[in-house]
Write a structure and sequence with these properties.
heterodimer; A: 393 residues; alpha/beta; Oxidized Rhodanese, domain 1; Rossmann fold; 2 domains; eight-stranded mixed sheet; five-stranded parallel sheet; 13 strands; elongated; B: 92 residues; alpha+beta; Ubiquitin-like (UB roll); five-stranded mixed sheet; 5 strands; globular
């Protein structure tokens, strides 16, 4: 007759090394890899700080990812010390780990002793499903998704660039999207401004965008600013945002935004489009150049066609807006090489992308100075800038 | 001959071309040769003092000529000059 489960467990415990929580407490941050072998729900309710999570049911397939070196000191724990004993036997006898211990009394005893517990923020079951394709990417994962959910991104305009950017940032689960736009949806917008729709003609763009975003992803909170961005309100509006998406259609506001964002240290993902061509760059204050380093002065009106109505291929702002959204997500996740210090030029007709370097100007009137010294009166100031074009419309 | 990339806002001044070939051994010479062949570009590229307009960026391949030797930067055959004026179209 086969031995009972309890008997097998007793035999296993006699063959493996066990360790008291007091000794493990000393080991935290001290060389040993502490592995929690419980189920995801148990891990989510709290675990030993610094521990890694490898559920016992995935032990054989995932332990090498967590502990690649078989000579490392590994401490396993579960709720009471039984599952971790089985796991210790597997690591020692089947997988060849040389220094494995199972913590007696498990997490229950750890907590009873009053040792610290880390409670991870977790995604709901619906969020795990919604963002499952993100969670499968090591560069995103649960931590990255939490960063996205915690992030606050401000879109300047729910127009050609802002529409696709807002849609995909919302879909990606960026938790707060601010939208600054004082315009209403017009029939001529719908050729490219895909966040709006035919039945919302005449509706304020911030309201129309909010409806689409809420229908797409209820996780996203929309903060609406149905105003025109100006020197009187910019600092108040952009404060507290992590990243700004600039799709502004005029130079005075671009310079105003630059100066205020440098002062507040907020990165700006900037794009501009005309006809079949687009420009894209990321201005991250003090890490790279600012907009004034790139373009110290705005062009005269005849070379600034944004002042009037100009044609644009409808998909072009889609392409550029999604490149902006991509840069925003990279900044939030801290992954990849951002376009800081580089400017990308995309030519839709030629299907080519050209890149040039953008250097910080050591004499930049704004970003060569300490942010505290940039005064309200200086924001967006430009010698006779009113002569160029007086803002939107 | 160097290749000069013409931005959208200047294309009308060069007969609609996206790229021109222009001769010259420095950035200044190449751009002056563009301005000589296409006089409408003169006032858009050059300031009254003969220097580049500050709102026009010029790159030799991918490097801003301002961090090289400006208009004196030497240009070889096969080099590309990119003219980049600021754009602000957000397509409201």
């Amino acid at each position: 007759m086969s031995p009972s489960g309890a008997e097998v467990l007793r035999q296993i415990k006699s063959r493996i090394d066990e360790v008291d929580p007091a000794a493990v407490h000393e080991q935290v941050g001290n060389g040993a890899v502490i592995v929690d072998v419980r189920e995801p729900e148990e891990w989510g309710a709290g675990h030993i700080p610094g521990a890694v999570h490898v559920p016992k049911s995935y032990l054989e397939s995932r332990i090498e990812g967590a502990v690649p070196d078989r000579s490392d000191h590994v401490v396993l724990y579960c709720a009471s010390g039984n599952r971790s004993a089985w796991a210790a036997r597997t690591l020692t006898e089947d997988l060849g780990y040389e220094h494995v211990e199972s913590m007696t009394g498990g997490f229950t005893l750890w907590k009873d002793r009053g040792y610290e517990v880390e409670t991870p923020r977790t995604l709901t079951a619906e969020q795990r499903e919604r963002y499952s394709r993100h969670l499968l990417l090591p560069e995103v994962g649960i931590d990255g998704q939490q960063k996205l959910l915690d992030a606050r991104v401000l879109l300047l305009g729910a127009g050609g660039l802002g529409s696709p950017a807002a849609l995909y940032l919302a879909a990606a689960g960026v938790g707060t999207l601010g939208i600054v736009d004082n315009d209403e949806v017009d029939l001529s917008n719908l050729q490219r401004q895909v966040i709006h729709s035919s039945e919302r003609i005449g509706v304020p763009k911030v309201d129309s965008a909010e409806q689409t975003i809420s229908a797409l992803n209820p996780d996203v909170k929309v903060e609406k600013y149905p105003v025109r961005l100006g020197a009187d309100n910019i600092v108040e509006i952009i404060s507290g945002y992590d990243v700004i998406v600039d799709g502004l259609d005029n130079f005075p506001t671009r310079y105003l935004l630059n100066d205020a964002s440098v002062r507040l240290g907020i990165p700006v993902v900037s794009a501009a489009i005309l006809g079949f061509e687009g420009q894209l760059s990321v201005f991250k204050p003090y890490d790279g150049p600012c907009y004034r380093c790139l373009f110290p002065v705005p062009p005269p009106a005849e070379l600034a066609p944004s002042c009037g109505a100009n044609g644009v291929l409808g998909v072009l702002p889609g392409t550029m807006g999604l490149l902006q959204a991509t840069e925003v997500i990279k900044l939030i996740l801290g992954e990849g090489d951002s376009l800081v210090g580089r400017l990308l030029m995309y030519d839709a007709l030629a299907a080519t992308a050209t890149e040039v370097k953008v250097r910080r100007d050591p004499d930049c009137p704004i970003c060569s100075r300490d942010p505290e010294t940039i005064s309200d009166d200086e924001l967006g100031v430009f010698p006779d800038y009113e002569a160029f074009c007086a803002g939107p419309h | 001959m160097a290749t000069v990339r013409i931005p959208p806002v200047l294309r009308a001044a060069v007969g609609g071309e996206k790229e021109l070939s222009a001769s010259g051994s420095s950035v200044g010479e190449v751009l002056r040769s563009v301005a000589d062949s296409h006089p409408d570009t003169q006032s858009q590229l050059f300031a009254s003092d003969g220097g580049l307009n500050r709102y026009v960026n010029v790159y030799l391949n991918d490097e801003d000529v301002r961090v090289l030797d400006g208009l004196d930067t030497s240009v070889g055959d096969g080099d590309t000059l990119v003219i980049l004026p600021a754009m602000a179209g957000g397509a409201r």
